[in-house]
Amino acid sequence: MKILGTGCANPSCVVTNQMLEGFLDTSDQWITERTGIKERRVMSSERLIDLAVSAANKALADAGVGVEELDFIICSNVVNEYATPAMSCMIQGAIGATCPCLDINAACAGFIFALDMAEDKLRAGKADKILIVCAEEPTRMVSWEDRNTCVLFGDGAGAAVVGQGDAMKAVKLTTASRTDVLYQLRRLEPTPYLQGDHSFAPLVMKGRDVFKTAVSSSTADIKDLLARTGIDSADVKYFVLHQANERIIDSIRGLLGEQPEKFPHNVERYGNTSSASVPILLDELSREGKLQKGDILVLSAFGAGFTTAACIIEWTK
Ligand code: UT7
Predict the structure, then answer these.
(1) Domain limits at 159?
(2) Do 224 and 86 share a structural domain?
(3) Contact 252, 130 (CB under 8 A)
(4) Pocket flag, ligand 1, residue 106 (CB < 6 Å)
(5) Looking at ligand 1, which atom is closest to the CA of residue 148?
(6) What is the CATH number for 273?
(7) 159 pLDDT band (50/70/90 cuts)?
(8) Lowest CB count within 10 Å: 50, 146, 176, 213, which one?
(9) pLDDT tens string 276-299
(10) How buried is residue 245: exposed, middle or buried, by Cβ count under 10 Å (0-12/13-18/19+)?
(11) What's the pLDDT tens digit per position in 228-262?
(12) Are residues 126 and 19 in the same domain?
């Protein structure tokens, strides 16, 4: 597998920490010190499908790949307004593709899970060109009266087109069932036969638990991949980490004994956009001319499940 092109799209509505101070018992100082987040993009006039399609079209254009060349579409999504059909089906129609597609939900680690699935299809000779779109609206999962969660998230979409190549040097996926630390109970229709409690609730997060698990598991994943491949961390150009919290990124960096310049971030502008965060950052780095052919990148993410995923890729564009 290799990445042929990337794209991203974010909502137009910018919500600053100061705006949140207007209706929440919070402060710019608290949010900045605890998370590094200064503002986030929040869905207003647009719909998630608009962002997904925009990111997908930009990635196709960047890759120079026509929709008719696509053999498969994978969409990583936790929540959107449709329970069914899958968002990938809507993306397929909107971009004019005809290939099969499916959605996955590996929470914030979804992009790397999707890269791994794509790699398997490419290796098996079942596909030559695959579109991955990570489209997320976590701001629709939280209560906007809960300062513990709503300040942390933002909406967005990131996409990549992948094709045949050997840029994927190693990948590691983990799942450890910890359904108590991060979850949302959505509303389903009642029936006359249901028994027991079927309440629904906005996102619940045990922040400190998630923080500690994220730091230890992401660090372990990265060390494991470097050891397995024999790649020296000095030869890694960038560690492209899930953008959840600047302090999480900094803690992982400290444990790896690395320099801040190697840990690009945009969490200050977008908040946590779930699985879209890694491809959005990758796309920004690429468009800013910060990636050169041959660069070694480490990608790492973690999220509800608890899922973690990391990979080492060579930038081949
Ligand atoms: O993609 C994965 C998803 N999630 C994450 O990655 C989140 C991981 N966790 C975190 O990022 C951090 O744990 C948080 C940012 C959520 C919290 O930071 P912390 O340093 O772990 O905070 P804390 O638990 O030490 O402090 C919580 C305190 C509580 O007050 P008391 O009970 O100590 O008096 C909260 O009520 O901070 C309070 N608090 C706030 N205060 C002002 C929580 N949210 C806010 C807020 N503004 N927005």
Answers:
(1) 2-166
(2) no
(3) no
(4) no
(5) 44
(6) 3.40.47.10
(7) very high
(8) 176
(9) 999 999 999 999 999 999 999 999
(10) buried
(11) 999 999 999 999 999 999 999 999 999 999 999 99
(12) yes
